[in-house]
Amino acid sequence: HVTLNVRRNDDTTWRIEVEDTGIGIPSHKQETIFEEFQQADNSSTREYGGTGLGLAIVRRFVLMMGGHIRVASTVDQGSTFTIILPLIEVDQPEATI
User: Fold this and answer.
1) DSSP assignment string, 30-79
2) Is the pLDDT confidence value at 93 over 90?
3) Do 75 and 20 meet the contact criterion of CB atoms below 8 Å apart?
4) Which residues pair with 86 in a beta bridge?
5) Are 39 and 50 in contact (CB under 8 A)?
6) Average pLDDT of span 4-26
7) Residues with Cβ within 8 Å of residue 53, at least 6 apart in sequence
8) Could you tell me which of 86, 13, 18 has the C-alpha nearest to residue 54?
9) Predicted TM-score of the model (pTM)
10) pLDDT attached to residue 45
11) Which site among 2, 57, 85, 90 is 20 to 30 Å from 18 CA-CA?
């Protein structure tokens, strides 16, 4: 089960939270999962697939936009990934009819 929550955090930032009820991530692996080709389970018999690039790519995009990403996780209970991005207001051209 995955929940997505996007909201204005304050006057200057957005908060995006993705929460799951999955297997969780051990505390000693929580920083390394944002590195390329890293996964919480690096064993040759791991149950879940993937290349270990998804979170590294997300982290790069978040940093390029001036934000930051973090994870809070408990093994066997799930994880919450929180992204904070600056709120940038874009001037919209006036519509002409």
Assistant:
1) TTGGGSTT--S--STT-SS---S-HHHHHHHHHHHTT-EEEEEEETTTEE
2) no
3) no
4) 13
5) yes
6) 94
7) 36, 37
8) 18
9) 0.76
10) 42
11) 90
Q: What strand order describes the sheet that includes 2-8?
A: 2-8, 13-20, 78-86, 68-74
pLDDT at 44: 43
- Provide the β-strand partners of residue 51: none
Handedness of CA 75, 28, 6, 49 (dihedral sign): negative
Q: Residue 68: which residues within 8 A CB-CB, separation 6 or more?
A: 62, 83, 84
User: Residue with structure tokens 């390394």?
Assistant: 32
Tokens describing residue 69: 């990403």
Q: How many whole angstroms separate alpha carbon 83 and alpha carbon 15?
A: 6
pLDDT digits (tens, 9 = 90+) for 17-76: 999 999 999 998 888 888 877 665 554 445 556 667 888 999 999 999 999 999 999 999
Task: Let me know the angle formed at the C-alpha of 67 by 3 and 48, rounded to the nearest 5 degrees.
Answer: 45
